[in-house]
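Researcher: Please predict.
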Amino acid sequence: MKIIFRKKTEYFINPLLSCCACAAGDRDRSILIAEHAHKVTNWTYIVNQAERYGISPLLYKHVEEGKISIPKHAYRSLHTLFIKHRRANAIRMRSLSEILQHFDQIGIEVLVLKGAALANTVYPQAGLRPMRDIDLLVRPHDALQAQTALAELGFKAPLGLSSYLPSNHHHLTNATQMTDGLLVSVEIHHHLFPEHQHYPSVTFDDLRKSVYSFSVNEVPAYTLGHEDMLWHIYRHTLGFPAFFEPFRLIAVADLVSIIEKYITEIDWKHLQQYYPQVWNILPLLHCLTPWSNALLQEIKLPVQAAPNKAGEYFHGWPCAKVAAQRQQGKNNWDIVRDAFFPSEWWVCLHYGAGGITQRLWYRYIYHPWQIVQWLVRYGKEYFKKQ
């Protein structure tokens, strides 16, 4: 008889890493992190996961500030990663300041998005927020001029779209430049999000009235207002329709860090009215990285019992290919269940569900219907190729 051993695959976010998903630190958080750290048996795995999730510099920060004892090899690895990201972001910020100055000279207004903005506004040090690209939003009619301006600065900046991008994509092909041994990548966005049936298109002029100002190497810069930034991060990284993106804990760190830093500046009524999904997921984030007492008291956030399988992210099809799941030892029922009925926690987080009615709707009707639609789409593409 042939014995088949199932490969052990972790789908739950490690509590040590989730607890470190916040730029701010306090005594209570340090105590909790120390408790989780003392339970770790495989630090190589933890360091690798922290880098995969985009929070290795934050893990290093909390270990340092809390004076938490960890194995020397893990400390050296985290310190090396911290130095690497700090150097990389210093190069990116230098490039960004040059871009902003050039755009200002030729009359292109621009908003800095995501990591490049957060590294300079929310995180105590820019190196604590790893990033892959510098994302910039301009008016649709300025997009090609902005791409041309990047070419003038020495970037390889194609004016056409790559073959893998649809003609109506929300950003142009990445412009790249090798600077001090680092490939700096810049995305020129003309819309904030891809087109989607549930949400209207968002452009520069829709956002310019509530911008937040900061500086990059003493060069003036602007980004989204707090409420718009929270919505952008949530929808771009955690909210639908992103089935294919692997779960990255840095998105949670971004959301939590913004809210903890700007508790009294955020217009909570505006957030609840216009971006209810963001408001609905706040108790879900508490399951990963606990909110401070200051926030819980300020907004009277109801901290309810954790939903089923809190911290288990989506790992079914189409996020994971069927063949890969079979290699992990999953049977047909496992594959169907993971695709159609993922954890309650993830469904509520992904769709921003609030209240029992919405939660049931998204978990048992809407999400399965989304999977059916993806199956139909893949079926049509498959038969076209035949």
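Model: The CA atoms of residues 316 and 335 lie 7 Å apart.
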